[in-house]
Design a protein that fits this description.
The complex is a heterodimer of chains A (80) and B (233). By secondary structure, chain A is α+β, with helices and mostly antiparallel strands. Chain A has one domain: 2-Layer Sandwich (Mth169, Chain: A), CATH 3.30.1280. In chain A, 30% of the residues lie in helices and 29% in strands. Chain B has 233 residues and is α/β, with parallel strands linked by helices. Chain B has one domain: Class I glutamine amidotransferase (GATase) domain (Rossmann fold). Helix content of chain B is 23%, strand content 25%. Chain B has a 9-stranded mixed beta sheet with strand order 2-1-3-4-11-10-9-6-7, with helices on both faces. A two-stranded antiparallel sheet of chain B has the order 5-8. The longest helix of chain B is centred in the C-terminal third of the chain and has 15 residues, at 218-232. The chains are: A alpha+beta (80), B alpha/beta (233). Chain A binds chain B through residues 14-15, 17-18, 21, 63-64, 66, 68-69, and chain B through 56-57, 60-61, 64, 92-93, 98-100, 102-107, 144, 146-147, 181.
Chain lengths: 80, 233
């Protein structure tokens, strides 16, 4: 069993309403050093040993992320 | 005229669409998401709701339902497809329409009647003069339309922007009139050919006076009927 971890975030320039709300809330709580909060998704994937990363990328492009609005980063669990 | 109304697990406006179509004197049938036959229908509607619980992203899973490869083929052959609310989200995920629908800017689920303005467009579904203001209900959490600047330019140049949120008099505020933050106040777009139309408002709820007053929803269902009759006649 191999493991991949996938981080999905909005592309630069795409407004992230939950992130912006968290940012304002943190500032209201006195954490004035906060200048940006981005909220994304974290996905854990278990696949058969030897599954190439290219295949995981395909899964991201097709289903797990929407390339129109989102970027993603794949990390194999060994690196994590 | 017979409309096929696709039912995904989690769709919840399919009965409203079927009812609206029947009130207007046409035939409508449900099409289960596992079915693959659309040949019997003159037009196909993807209704609103929460297909597959909106998991991953709205419409992301529904897009891979067996019926969707048929819907793509149907649309590409030039036949009429309408996506309402979640149906619009599914059409963007299926790449039948450009752009995407993000969470509403104010983070609130919005359920109210709004005014939208018909734009000069290639849309086969809407048969009203440009500038006509319609009152239609919206009911969504992810209706904040977005696309890259080049796509927006293309949408405008090709007459693919069909409906824009507006003030009751048809004007648009400089800071935007979209209650959900949609780019350029966009409420509905069509493909280049005009046969595929996606919109966030729910026209089916304002056809029968029992479910909503005003009746402005009929312009969309009657629009496609007139277009098709024109083709046949």
């Amino acid at each position: 069993m191999a493991r991949f971890e996938i981080y999905v975030t909005y592309k630069k320039g795409i407004f992230d309403p939950p992130g912006a709300t968290a940012e304002r809330a943190l500032q209201n709580l006195g954490y004035t050093e906060v200048s940006s909060v981005k909220i994304g998704k974290y996905i854990q994937l278990e696949v058969a040993d030897g599954t190439p990363e290219a295949r995981v990328r395909e899964m991201c492009d097709k289903l797990l992320a929407n390339p129109v609005i989102e970027d993603y980063r794949i990390q194999s669990a060994e690196e994590a | 005229m017979r409309f096929g109304v696709v039912v995904f697990p989690g769709s919840n406006c399919e009965q409203d669409v079927v009812h609206a179509v029947r009130v207007l004197g046409h035939d409508a049938c449900y099409v289960w998401h596992g079915d693959t036959g659309l040949a019997d229908y003159d037009a196909v509607v993807l209704p609103g709701g929460f297909s597959y619980g909106d998991y991953i992203r709205c419409g992301a899973v529904a897009r891979f339902s067996p019926v969707m490869s048929e819907v793509v083929r149907y649309a590409r052959s030039g036949r009429p497809v309408l996506g309402i609310c979640n149906g619009f989200q599914i059409l963007t995920e299926a790449h039948l329409l450009p752009g995407a629908l993000l969470r509403n800017r104010g983070l609130k689920f919005i359920c109210k009647t709004v005014t939208v303005r018909a734009e000069e467009s290639a849309c086969q579904w809407l048969d009203v003069a440009a500038g006509t203001v319609l009152r239609l209900p919206i009911n969504h959490n992810e209706g904040n339309f977005i696309c890259d600047p080049a796509t927006l330019e293309r949408l405008i140049d090709n007459g693919q922007v069909v409906l824009r949120y507006c003030e009751p008099d048809g004007s648009r505020r400089p800071q935007g009139s979209a209650p959900n933050g949609a780019l350029d106040d966009i409420a509905g777009i069509c493909n280049e050919r005009g046969n595929v139309f996606g919109l966030m408002p729910h026209p089916e709820r304002v056809v029968d006076p029992v479910t909503g007053d005003g009746g402005d929803g009929r312009y969309i269902f009657e629009g496609i009927v007139r277009t098709l009759e024109g083709v046949v006649g």
